[in-house]
Every structure is written in structure tokens, then in C-alpha cells.
Amino acid sequence: MKSCVTIALVPDIKTGPWIYWDDLEISMAKAAKLGFDAIELFTPSADTISSSWLLELTRRFGLTVAAVGTGAGKVLHGLTLTDPDPQIRAKAVAFIADMMSFGATVGAPAIIGSMQGNVAPGTEKVQALGWLADGLTTLDQTAQKLGVPLIYEPLNRYETNLINDLQAGVDFIRSLGTKQVVLLADLFHMNIEEASLADSIRAAGSYIGHVHFADSNRRPIGLGHTSMDSVAAALREIGYSGYISAEAFPYPDPDRAAQQTIRSFQTYFGPSST
């Protein structure tokens, strides 16, 4: 498994759960010095930074890009895959596809979290899930062309009324028959929705393609009450070998949050990537 830290370059989400902010080069230098394997990147759009510059930074600091987030599509533009307006849904698909193309230039998949949206008032849930299915199916075709996975994230009940737990995510993806769509197991969301984090991970198995590493209070692991021993054991049991990415609040500050995260990663998963 490989360690990863989040970097956000979107001022509008300054209160969000990302460790590093603002300056990509400085943040990557800090991540590399602490021994992280990778970064997870959140930008306002696909053209915020050039792919060539990002590649140069990854080479300089010996880091990979684990994933790119798409949440700015909702935060900045109000786009979701389940909006009742078909034009907005089309724009949401286009925004995500652009982010996927950007990520693919550095071998990184895109994450669909908040851009999945909600069941809007006056809309039946089955209809909203149909729109979500249409969006993911279309984007799966893009992912196949790009040769990267597409990561879908179940969110807790306070953030979406669509799909809230891993098993529901597995059932939904299985029903689509997509080839590149995988699940994101976010430990913070799971602490709210799952009866047992470890059992849910075991049940989801190979559908899990990415892990968000945050404690029960969304602070860095070790600052809440998540039972990480059982979670780490479950990830090993399913043969997970991907990224363990710190989407957590920068508490008490970014530098100490990053230090806490890498210490916790090394405690539960070892000192180096495997």
C-alpha cells in the first residue's frame, strides 16, 4: 500500500478536509520530505495547472499523483450528475471528463464524490439513480479510452441521499456492468454509515480502488476513535495495494496534520510502499 496526502488549490473550499493548500510546489516538497509516496490533487478546473508542470514536479520530488478530485464542479459551478436539468447533467459529465483527461496525463484517475449530487425535491430516487447510472456509464467509456480507473465515492447521509455505504456502492456498480468504475472507501464516511468498517471492506473486496484515510472526526488518523488495527487487517485480507490518502482536516495545522498522517500510515501499513 502507498501513502498519499491531499493538496487543494481551490480557495472556495478552504474549510474542507485537505491537508495542504495553495502552493503546489511547496506542498509537494513537504510531502516528499516526510516520505509520502503520492499526492491527491484538487483543482478548480482541468486547466488550472499544466500537465507538463505537474509531471516535472512529480519527477523532481519522486511522487506520483494518486487521483484528482472533481468537487470543484459542484462547489464552483453547481454541476451534478443528478440535476433534473439535462443540460446541467451534460455539463457535469463534460467537466468530469475534462478532469479525467487531465489526470490521465499523469496516470491518475478522477474521483466522483460531491458531483454525484442528491435526489432533488420533486424527483423520485429511482430517477436520480438512473441519471447517476447514465453519467457513470458514459464516463466509464471515457475511462476505458484513457486507460485509467474512475473512482466513485459513497458519501454519508448528510452529504447525499443517493448511495451511502460500500455495499450499496458495490450493488450499484455491479448493476451497471462498467469496466473501469471502482469504489472509494472513505473511513470518515464509513464511520457514520457502516456497522463494521472492517467487515464492509472485506465484503466490498476488489471493488475498492482507493481509500481515504481520516479518523472518525475527520482529523488525521490517530486523533479520533477509528479502530485502525481491524481496518488495516481487512485491507490486507482483500489484497488491497493502492493508495491510502489523507483526506482529513489540516488539524492542528497542515504540517502537523501531515506528520501525524505519515506516522499513522507507517504504524499500520509499514515504512514504505509495497
Please explain how this structure is put together.
The chain has 274 residues and is α/β, with parallel strands linked by helices. It has a single domain (2-269), classed as Divalent-metal-dependent TIM barrel enzymes (TIM Barrel), CATH 3.20.20.150. It has ten helices and nine strands. Strands 1-3-4-5-6-7-8-9 form an eight-stranded parallel β-barrel, surrounded by six helices. The radius of gyration is 17 Å and the shape is globular. InterPro entries: Sugar_Epim/Isomerase, Xyl_isomerase-like_sf, Xyl_isomerase-like_TIM-brl. GO terms for molecular function: isomerase activity.
Low-confidence stretches: none
Count of discrete domains: 1
The helix fraction, in percent, is 40-55%
Tally of individual helices:
10
Second-tier CATH architecture: Alpha-Beta Barrel
CATH homologous superfamily assignment: Divalent-metal-dependent TIM barrel enzymes
Proportion of beta-strand residues: 5-15%
Number of strands: 9
CATH topology: TIM Barrel
CA(first)-CA(last) distance: 5 Å
* Strand ordering within the main sheet: 1-3-4-5-6-7-8-9
Q: What's the gyration radius in Å?
A: 17 Å
Shape: globular
Please identify the top-level CATH class: Alpha Beta
- Listing every helix as H and every strand as E from the N terminus to the C terminus, the arrangement reads EEHEHEHHEHEHEHHEHEH
Structural class: alpha/beta
Overall pLDDT: 96
Main beta-sheet strand count, sense and barrel state: 8 strands, parallel, barrel
